[in-house]
Amino acid sequence: MDKIVIEGGYPLSGKVSVSGAKNAALPILAACLLSRGKSIIHNVPALRDIDTMKRIMGLLGADFIEEQGALVVDTQQARHHVAPYELVKTMRASILLLGPLVARLGRAKISLPGGCAIGARPINLHLKGLASMGADMYLDRGYINAKARRLKGTEIFLDIPTVTGTENLMMAAVLADGTTTIRNAAKEPEVQDLADFLRSMGAMITGDGTDTITIEGVQELQPAEHAVIPDRIEAGTFLIAAAMCAGDVEIQDCMPEHLTAVIEKVETAGARIVPGDRSISVQGPDRIESVDIKTLPYPGFPTDLQAQFMAFMSIADGWSMIRETIFENRFIHVSELRRLGAEIEINGAQALVKGRKQLLAAPVMATDLRASACLILAGLVARGGHTEVHRIYHLDRGYEDLEKKFQGLGARIWRERA
Ligand code: EPU
Question: Residue 10's domain is classified under what CATH number?
């Protein structure tokens, strides 16, 4: 298994470009199934999760061609409706195929995603929403089976503003008969990007980006062309890294307006940040102030940057309180950070971090995608040898060329193949 090796302690400087957003590209690829023909998607990141989505959609009959840097998704022959366990178990986001398949083919059979390292992650709200639109559903041998002649528009209230749940129901509703209103909908930029793509296919959607989304069903959709938004979590990872490593970095091809909560916290920690139109300049402070954070749905501080921010706070001057409110088990990186010398106490959903002057290099193990990024950030500041981050396949699910991008900023980081 590959590992990443880091010799920490060098400042970061220069420019780095952000890739397309994984969590926008995944639902957009799934949405291509809602029409028949060739959609052209730009800015799709080269990631393992994207490959998994392409493999499952390939089994459904879709075809993919790379053309001048864009991904052409041909759904002309996409007539199958089964997403098998072997692939779904490697990526929970496969559940995003449920809405499009039921809407387009009238049936879907998708392996029920299991729990995952960061929490139980049920999909009850996806299923309840689809059932209220008239889908007939049952669980058989670990597969969700859903059927509907034509879904019917309805009022849906989400108990929790689930991101993929909102996306699934929005995709189901675009071809439904009548109007669907999703209340307490997720407001994440990825939901808005999906809505933009669906509108370019001919869907009638309003209110995305607010907590009430209204969808007027149409008879059919056409293939369309779309550029995926930049990955705000990747941009936020560089933002925090630059602030940690006394950096002077320009993060390019990003949307600062998607990172308001993060910019505010990193600034409070002492960094100098200048947002541009599609870029952010960051200068790290000499002394990092401790700052408290609480993860929240968008536009609050994203749970997908909580682990990276904890690495940051582990070298701050003072104590900081980190509260995780989205997932019940998203502190698994803590025991690995402790191996690097971080002082962190966990009490339920709160972590109390006592900043230290230095972290010390050690071998560590990644446990999920964002935990991998957190350990790399910690490795970039850890002294006294090499930090080795093992089980790096988690990182490859969601960061494109992360170590190469850090190399471009002057970090001493490389991948070793086993
Ligand atoms: N929830 C339920 N029932 C449901 C759906 C969600 O109880 O039917 C709960 C979850 O257990 C969780 C909370 O609601 O406690 C929020 O989960 P949400 O459904 O919003 O998460 P998700 O859609 O499964 C997406 C991202 C995650 C990101 C979260 C939160 C994708 C493909 N995944 O997951 O990204 O952490 O939203 O912002 O969009 C990552 O990229 O590393 C990642 C985990």
Answer: 3.65.10.10
